[in-house]
Amino acid sequence: MVFSSLLFLFRFLPVMLIVYFAAPKRFRNGVLFLGSLIFYGWGEPVYITLLLFSTLVDYVHGRLVWRFMEEGKEKRARLCVASSVIINLGLLGVFKYADFLLETVGRLTGLSFPLPGLALPIGISFYTFQTMSYTIDIYRKEASPQKNIIDFGAYVSMFPQLIAGPIVRYHTIAEELRERTENFAGFSRGVFLFAVGLGKKVLIANTIGALWTQISGVPDGERTVLMMWMGILAFGMQIYFDFSGYSDMAMGLGAMMGFHFPENFRYPYTAKSITDFWRRWHITLSTWFKEYVYIPLGGNRKGAAVQVRNIAIVWLLTGIWHGAAWNYLLWGLYFGALLLLEKFILKPYLEKMPSAVRSAYAMTFVFLGWVLFAHENMAEGLLYFTQMAGAGGIAFASRRTWYLLVTNLPLLAAAVLGSTPLPGILCRKFSGRVRETAELLFVAVILVLSVAFLVDASYNPFLYFRF
């Protein structure tokens, strides 16, 4: 089940909210836990057992780590943390990477291995990182163990952020799991955020994604340089509005029920450098790798050579977190190399450049990176790069290119404008009753248009389901 579906909007969500608010406060975590399991199991009920197993594993490990720390048995506590990490990464490895690893070993050795062919459980990359960080944080004394397994289950399986994040560390919402305030102001804010996210997903991501699909399907002989650049612009906008839209909807749903989830996107396409971009894009994932990989490895505290190693490891892991394919690994290393280049060479030069030049530099390399990300078939990706560069005598434009550009120019302009803070700045110029009325009208229009699009939609993908 996805948020941008009529089933979710008109069946699951209304029933869930009615039951949730009708229940006494002490039972609401139980309602949330059960409702989240129904949400998760709607498309693939077999993987509810995997989610429950992860919940049980880290609930038990968290209690054990805390007990051993209290008793001064730190070695046993470390073993429990290691056990939790091994089990979590083992599950992720089996379901997400087994086929890729076996195929790779087979190519290198010439041997043939039977492939498990297991379907990737939705959201496993997100909830695995959440449950794993819970045990680690208890060991670090940054969180106390949850004694109520229903409350812990509600945290792990919470449907607003289960399938696509943001990655919420336990201590961020521990207090709200125990006691939270649900009120009209929070609910209204949640509805507004949800409407914004739904509009991003349905009205922009789906529409501009159809343009990317159309362009990527054009035969090689009919492609042009301008068409290729327009295509990767469309893909970059699709993945941004798709993922940030889901993050907004998650924050909105959480706010309706009294939770405050961390921000996951902060206008990344306004970044002035690659470093700045990764402070704005998928913030909770970058923070997770910083807290649980980069800093424990030594961060920047042990000299330049160790820092280079640590950055390379983090970005290799960031790449393969997104998918079990070579293009994701190379995409991660590509950004790791750019970040190292900025840190050790380019930083003083970038600081002296005009803001527009820095933005152009950052976005050029970000969108070139999307070519890698978009093509699991490396040969197709390499061909796309050469066509963007005009190699092989490919024309700059054609009648078909100009037709695609003119007919989609309003959509591309809306996407570019919507990826900046400008719409929000304009809205904040209103105040009081005028602003409240404008927001109410905005929510109503977005919801009506989104539902209209969904009724007639045959194209409603979600790119991060496969991650």
TrEMBL record:
Listed GO biological process terms: alginic acid biosynthetic process
Transmembrane segments: 6-23, 30-56, 76-98, 110-129, 191-212, 224-241, 311-335, 355-374, 403-426, 438-459
Pfam family, one: MBOAT
Keywords, ordered alphabetically: Acyltransferase, Cell membrane, Membrane, Transferase, Transmembrane, Transmembrane helix
Compartment(s): Cell membrane
Topology in the lipid bilayer: Multi-pass membrane protein
Predominant cellular place of this UniProt entry's protein: membrane
GO CC term, one of those recorded: plasma membrane
GO terms for MF: acyltransferase activity
PANTHER family per UniProt: ACYLTRANSFERASE, PROTEIN-CYSTEINE N-PALMITOYLTRANSFERASE RASP
Annotated family: Belongs to the membrane-bound acyltransferase family.
Protein name: Alginate O-acetyltransferase complex protein AlgI
